Amino acid sequence: MLVTVTLNTALDITYRVPRLVPHASHRIGEVSERPGGKGLNVARVLAALGHRVTVTGFAGGATGAVVREGLGATEGLVDALVPVSGATRRTVAVVDGTTGDTTQLNEAGPQITAAEWAAFQETYRELLASASAVALCGSLPPGLPVGAYALLVRAARAAGVPVLLDTSGEPLRRGVAARPDLIKPNADELAELTGSHDPARATRDARGRGARTVVASLGTEGMLAVTPEGRWRAVPPGRVDGNPTGAGDSAVAGLLSGLVENLTWPQRLTRAVALSTATVLAPAAGEFDAAAYRELLTRVEVTREGGAGGAARTATS
Amino acid sequence: MLVTVTLNTALDITYRVPRLVPHASHRIGEVSERPGGKGLNVARVLAALGHRVTVTGFAGGATGAVVREGLGATEGLVDALVPVSGATRRTVAVVDGTTGDTTQLNEAGPQITAAEWAAFQETYRELLASASAVALCGSLPPGLPVGAYALLVRAARAAGVPVLLDTSGEPLRRGVAARPDLIKPNADELAELTGSHDPARATRDARGRGARTVVASLGTEGMLAVTPEGRWRAVPPGRVDGNPTGAGDSAVAGLLSGLVENLTWPQRLTRAVALSTATVLAPAAGEFDAAAYRELLTRVEVTREGGAGGAARTATS
């Protein structure tokens, strides 16, 4: 069983407006809402790939009830969210129909008490006992210690469960020091962690800080993986236009599923880039286009980098 | 028992941001939410004035549950909302801390079925049997006939219950033709109803269309009342700066409470202007400043207008 952890789950609300005009009043014709937070998004993609996934983290209030209802209706997901007294946060994405741009309003999340954090850790340890891999995803809600992810990484390692960490800032810095198996920073997160804007140098530095493998997602330049088995770069075929929301979460799902399926690194990266690109192409934010995904699996280019022999093309499918 | 009708109740959410930047991402530190929709706001002010008020209309979904929970916690309010299968709408007010301006995002509301509308009408007729007065407030949710308020006005008149209508557009036009006792349009609503931007002419025209009394709220110029007993203008003392959200609803509460307390027109207008002004002055949108209200009661100026003798000052307190 795969496990994803979303400590700051969200009810993601999308409003479409013809044009967003500050200080004006807008009547919203089209409203959509769905369970959100990075770990939930990852879980949904994993479920779409045919994996059974247990989802944990915190949920509370009326918004939390809506999130749980949505999870319950998704095939392949098991709800192991821990109830809290505060209300699950909302995120509001206002999509401007004229420019296509999105204005994002993200609530901070509920205040988590020490007792709630203790209850979560107990649930987490129970889930680790039967987990094949775990992904720790997203921001921390108010009240949690900044070293929360470091603690969860250590618990996973102690239980012998491969652990992927996808967060940012100080929680990422602390978490990396606890030696996770895999981190998947984007360019900004990687630069913030290491102080370097050079991906080759920064990925090396991140490994030096404790991450066993670093897969950096570099937008249109694809992904750069620095692993104990070598370095690879994976790029999508040509430029892709669309909504990048959720592309990183799809990449995490690709990497995690590849890990438990014992795929080679080139195969894992191909899957991650194909899923990520198919997410950008999908009309609904955070969904992936299944047909585009299957087609992209044959077109992602993976190149081995570094080593004595320099770059060499690797067959992946 | 006073009754207020809010067919399109809302969960009013307020986000404070240092500055609203379109197409950027904003982390919301301060979130507040409360039951909304004009009739609910009117009821809350009436309750604060010491009246017992029954609140009806529609509520549904997780947002509707939060609205009902909020109502249940408010002293003096009786919840007679009719459950619907759709979800009560949200309104999101984004307050820009730099300019103080508000950007408003208003969901349209749930689709009301014919059966739900029939269930509401039954509840409404039962409430009329013991109502001292009724206020019909705000927009119509999707699915209701545009003549919905006209029908509710007629039912109130048939039951001998004084009825105040506070809405806009075509529902106001149809509702006025059903001869309500009182309408309280603002300048824009009055102009849209009558085609005239001259308040004196427009209020006369609105009476000609069927409203027994018209009280026009004219912002900083106070209120103009055209009644079977004469015409009055009521103005606050000097210019008032603040948030006008809910000022109109407070005015409706002033007029409705004045009606059932058998106050004179000058007294009712004094109360309406004082409440409305005290609402603009309150720090929280839609609340009124009780101390300012009491003080304003002695300082609102009411002037009798028109007639053979022209304007004459009227003592009101």
UniProtKB/TrEMBL annotation, chains A, B:
SUPFAM superfamilies, sorted: Ribokinase-like
Keyword hit for Nucleotide-binding: yes
InterPro entries hit by this protein: Carboh/pur_kinase_PfkB_CS (IPR002173), PfkB_dom (IPR011611), Ribokinase-like (IPR029056), Tagatose/fructose_Pkinase (IPR017583)
PROSITE patterns: PFKB_KINASES_1, PFKB_KINASES_2
A biological process from GO: small molecule metabolic process
Record GO terms (molecular function): ATP binding; phosphofructokinase activity
Alphabetical UniProt keywords: ATP-binding, Kinase, Nucleotide-binding, Transferase
Residue ranges annotated for the Carbohydrate kinase PfkB domain, each copy included: 12-286
Recorded superkingdom: Bacteria
Keyword set includes Zinc-finger: no
Pfam family, one: PfkB
Family listed: Belongs to the carbohydrate kinase PfkB family.
Protein name: 1-phosphofructokinase family hexose kinase
Source organism per UniProt: Streptomyces doudnae
